[in-house]
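Bench log. Compound arrived from synthesis this morning; before running ITC I wanted a structural hypothesis for how pyridoxal-5'-phosphate sits in the protein. Inputs:
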Amino acid sequence: MSLSFKKSQAAYEEAKKVIPGGVNSPVRAFKAVGNHPVFIQSGQGAHVTDIDGNELIDYICSWGPLIFGHNDKAVQEAVLSAVQNGTTFGMPTEIETTMAAKIIELIPSIEKVRMVSSGTEATMSALRLARGYTGREKIVKCGGCYHGHADHLLIQAGSGAMTFGVPSSPGVPENIAKETLTATYNDIASFKQLFEAYKDQIAAVIIEPIPGNMGLILPDQGFLEDLRTLTEANGTLLIFDEVISGFRASLGGAQKRFNIMPDLTCLGKIIGGGLPVGAFGGKAEVMDHLAPFGEVYQAGTLSGNPLAMTAGYTTLCELQKRDPYTQLEEKGKQLKEGLEEAAQKHGVPVSINHLGSLLTVFFTDQPVHSYADAQTSSTEAYRIFFESLLAEGIHLPPSQFECWFISTAHQDSDIEATLKAADHAFKAVAE
Ligand code: PLP
């Protein structure tokens, strides 16, 4: 089987005439896999249908929001009902309080929360708050972690920026970049060195507790605990960017799974239920420094949008009700083990990182614990693998350095079909 994507190719040519690179977010252009993107018509469950009429098994799931897959009935019905009342008011609605209370109930370290419209806004605002609260200017992030595209966070960023080999972006002023220090994930000594060199100057450490933007990396035993101790000892806020891991690593995010309490948490993706939402929250004592009663300014025309709140709130309630985490963990494991077996059969060296419904296949013969390890992965092997799977109707993320997202809608039959196609894809890589 080899699918045709002629209409998508033509649509991409049209899009490029009016949209820079033909897409509204760089990774969608398939540049890292040397192809053209697939244009989507609709989605249902674990599948998307493209404009050529191909039905594809989707492991992007909108890059994480769709933990129940596409067009989940409960979420769809709630949004359809909410839209009858209007789409936005710019004045308070009760659903915002309901949503905030639900987040506080589920995420252990959050006592107060402010809603925004994207993950980028969440991290950007959390850092301003951390700087305002501590009166310090420097921040620390890890090489390979991605926290959205605000100037001070686009330094050694992962995700699209990693694939394109741009450590930071033109347009980021040097004066801003120099306030961002970079450490190495899973290497506490690299943080200690920064704290010694910049004593009493570091406002916050921002980190993906489970990095997903250099491919999936898991925290080594004790690393996050040590970081918590170190930041506390230095009067520095620890910010967990749980935009991916929130409500995915567990219902209470990575912090609940590993039992480590950050000072601030950034959320996005799943809390929007597929609509544009982000949030940041934490200790009330810190959050109360935000305007209007505090001095740190932060705002948004569509923040707390009632449709987005409805989609998000419904998703969180459904997660509580359906409790899908054991089942998702099992599906991820099944996929990982099947992929390992197929790779081994064809003599292709891979290292597969997996946690719950997140997974990355690195084309390398060494374990991947760090940004440097991830970079040993063969992007050419991934390109062949990706292309071969797509030709058989399996849509992986179009970059080596991203997570595959599994949803509750992925059935055994989807996983079996994926493994069958992966057998051919590893064969193609081996040739
Ligand atoms: N933080 C993390 C960990 C992310 O993965 C992303 C996006 O993928 C962001 C922040 C930025 O979120 P958004 O794309 O909604 O601005």
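What the model suggests: The domain at 6-67+324-430 is CATH 3.90.1150.10 (Aspartate Aminotransferase, domain 1). Residues 63, 118-120, 123, 146-148, 208, 212-213, 241, 243-244, 268, 278 surround pyridoxal-5'-phosphate (CB under 6 Å).
ITC booked for Thursday regardless.
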